[in-house]
Amino acid sequence: MTIDLSKMRQKFREREYKLTPQRQMILQVFMDNRGKHLSAEDVHNIVRQQSNDIGLATVYRTLELLSELEILQKMDFGDGRSRYELNENSTPHHHHHLICITCGKVIEFEDDLLEDLENVIAKNSNFTIIDHQVKFYGHCQECREKREG
Amino acid sequence: MTIDLSKMRQKFREREYKLTPQRQMILQVFMDNRGKHLSAEDVHNIVRQQSNDIGLATVYRTLELLSELEILQKMDFGDGRSRYELNENSTPHHHHHLICITCGKVIEFEDDLLEDLENVIAKNSNFTIIDHQVKFYGHCQECREKREG
DNA sequence: GTATGTGCAAATTGTTTGCATCGCG
DNA sequence: CGCGATGCAAACAATTTGCACATAC
């Protein structure tokens, strides 16, 4: 189900994009960092740590490309930079985020209830829904305990 | 229920912020533009049209302040700039957005179904949810008709 | 009167772009 | 081989910051 190099190779051939080492390297970064929400700079730094430098512009261009191919999913947590993660089980995602207001931690959760909601909304608003992004803001257990402590 | 100048005056006194003409003017812009999602630049332009110039930096600082006071709500539609609107009935909002991928139009919708979802999630994830922000991406009726046309 | 707020311009930050060069298919 | 991809540096756009001056309380 999950994307790997051969899947990516296939997607690239279909669309006649070149599979350069830089692009492979960036995919690898995401495969090595499942569950994290990496910014362009994060990716750039990780690659450099492996002493395999890539131009930052190339990182940006690749992230954009991989998002278009639906290999990555672009997301925004309101911290002023775009973040990306592997788009595990293509669409729809059923995968949302709890953002702790206190410590900024981002927790994932899976859910299907939103599907029903989508249907209701689609009917009421005459809007064809393709994707959704949900963020819940609140306090995580840890911060709550600290505060109440 | 809705915020007006006297409410704002009160909130400002509580926190010992000064109620300057610039700050009042910016609140007025939002009261005159209910339902719109204004960026800092939008606000700046509207004020200038009324031949009452305010420094752009002040606009930014005021938007930040008003968000902190929960008079405004900061939101992000992925167009590279923050947008703000009056935070009508304090928390929780029950007020979400449908974003058309084709034309970029933002449609509002009210909903309560998410409350149930919040409760389930809170229980499952041990997370105290204070607010949520939901964006649905898809095609609005108009664009759909054009495409099928 | 004094701490806070404002305006301006300069600095920062994230991201994009132009162009010469490189290398995948 | 040729065209798309890369790297660099310069350009951009949104936002932030330093500082002298102004003003609400």
Helix content of chain A: 40-55%
**What is CATH's topology name of the largest domain in chain A?**
Arc Repressor Mutant, subunit A
Unreliable stretches of chain A: none
Count of β-strands of chain A: 6
Instruction: Determine the CATH superfamily of the largest domain in chain A.
Output: Winged helix-like DNA-binding domain superfamily/Winged helix DNA-binding domain
Provide the CATH top-level class of the largest domain in chain A. Mainly Alpha
Largest sheet of chain A at a glance?
Answer: 3 strands, antiparallel
- Look at the structure and give the mean pLDDT of chain A: 81
Distance N to C terminus of chain A = 43 Å
Strand order of the largest sheet of chain A: 1-3-2
Please report the number of helical segments of chain A.
Answer: 6
Structural class computed from helices and strand pairing of chain A: alpha+beta
Greatest chain-chain interface? A-B, 35 and 36 residues
* SSE run of chain A: HHEHHEEEEHEH
The CATH architecture of the largest domain in chain A would be Orthogonal Bundle
| Overall number of structural domains of chain A | 2
Q: Please give the oligomerization state of what you see.
A: homodimer
| Shape verdict of chain A | flat
What's the arrangement of secondary structure elements?
Two copies of one chain form a homodimer.
Chain A: H1 5-15, H2 21-32, E1 38-39, H3 40-49, H4 56-68, E2 72-76, E3 82-86, E4 95-100, E5 106-110, H5 113-125, E6 127-140, H6 141-148
Parallel strand pairs in A: 4-6
Antiparallel strand pairs in A: 1-3, 2-3, 4-5
Helix pairs in contact in A: 3-4
Chain A binds a DNA duplex (25 and 25 nucleotides) through α4.
